[in-house]
Structure of Tryptophan 2,3-dioxygenase family protein:
Amino acid sequence: MSETATVTYPEYLRLPELLSLQSPLADGVDDELLFITVHQVQELWFGQLLRDLSDARDRMLEGDPRAARARLVRSVSVTRALIAAIHPLRAMPPREFHAFRGVLGSSSGQQSAQYVEIAGLCGADWVRGEYGRRAVAGLAPGERERLHRRLAEPTLWEGFVALLAKAGFAVGTREERWEAYARLGAGPLDGDPAEFAELAELAEALVDHDEVWTEWRACHALLVERQIGGRPGTGGSSGTAHLRASVYRRFYPELWEARDAGFAEAPARCPMG
């Protein structure tokens, strides 16, 4: 009998260690455990997303749009699980949250290194701006180093643009890329390589991925407003105002801007001129 045949369910999942990490700080406040559980679950799913999105990026760079799309589709499902995992906190009355809010100290969701990593991996430009600088400042040295390494890697967006270039599209300017999106959005034409259809499906998968993150941020913003109204958040954040402003941040803004520019109505054309 192999050694793994004797591994039990709690041993495999390391349940004693996992459950020992749920350690409320406030005395006699039952809902703090729910708050901890929800946020730990978020971070576990963030870790899975980083693996799947990194793989999607790598598949793009290897020239495999079909495999990249499969990973993005799963990432959308995982992000929907993230949204569902927030919902139990809606059942927490504000008075219960405020009963333990003081023990949170300077901690803030802005200090989630994995969330910033996800945005950076996708290619979000706002991660490299003021938001990113504030987030990095609140991280431990090890997390800061990991985030800097992540931000030095190729992004999903760069992987997608590389696929467009490999298929023969001009990608040097935003307008040229818009033409590529319009051509893909026009649907298959006689003589098109099968790769074009796969690229079109991948572009829509990127939009799906961006859209579901908008839903996640909106859900988060509403939850915080429900708990604290317009008051400042923990860790020096502006609370609801900051979260409201972040709802419509895009990971892949060009795919949305192209629609504003007449993406759906643009005439079909050959990418090679």
